[in-house]
Amino acid sequence: MLKEYEYDVTIVGAGPAGSTAANILSKNDKKTILIDKEKFPRTKACGGGLTDKTIKKIPSIDNIIESESFECILYSSSLTNKATLVKDKPIISMISRYSFDNYLLKKAIDNGTDFLENTKVENIEILNDKIITYIKNDKKIHSKLIIGSDGFNSIIAKKAGLQKNKIFGISIFDEIPLSKDVIIKYFSKKLICHMYLQFGGVSGYGWVFPKESSINVGIVDYRIIGKNKKIELKKIFEDFLNTLKNKNIIPNYIKKVNPKNGFLPFCPLEKTYTDRIILCGDAGGFINPLTGEGIYYAISSGEIAAKVAIKAIESNNFNNNFLSEYEDIWKSKFGLNIIKMINIAKKYTHNSEEFIKILNNDKKLFEELF
Ligand SMILES: Cc1cc2nc3c(=O)[nH]c(=O)nc-3n(C[C@H](O)[C@H](O)[C@H](O)COP(=O)(O)OP(=O)(O)OC[C@H]3O[C@@H](n4cnc5c(N)ncnc54)[C@H](O)[C@@H]3O)c2cc1C
């Protein structure tokens, strides 16, 4: 049995970042292998909300969109102040990650990407003339470059010595089935999304996103690695559900189905590339910490990673200096926007009342959040 493979690029992780990069590389005739530890289709901890800027990046996505929300309400932690954004085009479009990620993956496979599922990457080794990816059964994949798109707990970032940030988000969320009629009764035809800033003392927020036949409800708290926080997220999630019931945002007969934990980064890694390695998506730490939006940044950084990888293959140059262009490009495309959101998140972590006031006076900023 064949034990070694040879590729131009090995991509680890078939989420939106990895599949986007794989699709572009394959379209450009670069020999690409995409590896994921899960069997696809698979689910992923996520609210499933896409902003307009994300939708614009994906051609013919209409069949995947489950529903569209035209109104979004943000509440302060006292629950007394709120800011409302209403638009005549969707603010958030809802998808299921089961279908969405599989759709992006299929596009990459159709364009020639080799896909290895159910296969965990266990180690990598950077050599002068190639990089080796170690998978199960002692198999090795030789390639010129690795794109690490293996999510929040990226093994590629770890093995490459690219340091993780100390701040991270931990969440509890649940997807609760509900009939279409009940969803419209409670969330109106505009399918209002609700976000409760710093609910119950968390430094993040609680959310309720109505979908076609379910609601996605969850809570996220930002923490510092190694520092214990006296916050019981499970208990706050319970309180959150009860508050939503008392305020008649959701029906009071609703019961939890299968609450799960999910993790998200807070800000980009200090360095997102090294010799023969580029990190994108959550592995690179790309997220809007105010809203938790990461899919847009996963797709955008996947696109940039692929373009820089193509240049590297064509110049036969995979060193640290050459790949630094990746960071220059993502910084110029969305880096400033992420920094702005991080600064706002830090400034208003303990002052949601003030933040709601600001949003009510600055519609442009409010719109920028999505
Ligand atoms: C609770 C929660 C709610 C969220 N809600 C939203 C939202 O509504 N909208 C939004 O835009 N973003 C949201 N996000 C963020 C969003 O989910 C991520 O930013 C996005 O999935 C990042 O995509 P990615 O491709 O970088 O990584 P992922 O989607 O995490 O994919 C990484 C892939 O790598 C694979 N992998 C990991 N390790 C290995 C390994 N060693 N070997 C092989 N494969 C491996 C995994 O199986 C996975 O398939 C949310 C996050 C959480 C936790």
Q: Can you characterise this structure?
A:
The structure is a single chain. By secondary structure, the chain is α/β, with parallel strands linked by helices. It is built from ten helices and 18 strands. The chain has helices at residues 16-27, 52-55, 97-110, 155-159, 180-187, 233-246, 295-315, 320-348, 352-361, 363-368, and strands at 4-12, 32-35, 49-51, 67-69, 71-75, 82-86, 92-94, 114-116, 123-126, 131-134, 140-148, 167-177, 193-197, 205-210, 214-224, 260-265, 273-274, 277-279. The chain is globular and about 60 Å long. The structure holds flavin-adenine dinucleotide. Flavin-adenine dinucleotide is lined by residues 12-18, 35-38, 44-49, 120-121, 149-151, 155, 171, 173, 218, 262-264, 281-283, 287, 292-296, 298.
**Order of SSEs:** EHEEHEEEEHEEEEHEHEEEHEEEHHHH
Class based on secondary structure composition and strand pairing: alpha/beta
Number of strands: 18
Q: Cα distance, first to last residue?
A: 50 Å
Ligand species: flavin-adenine dinucleotide
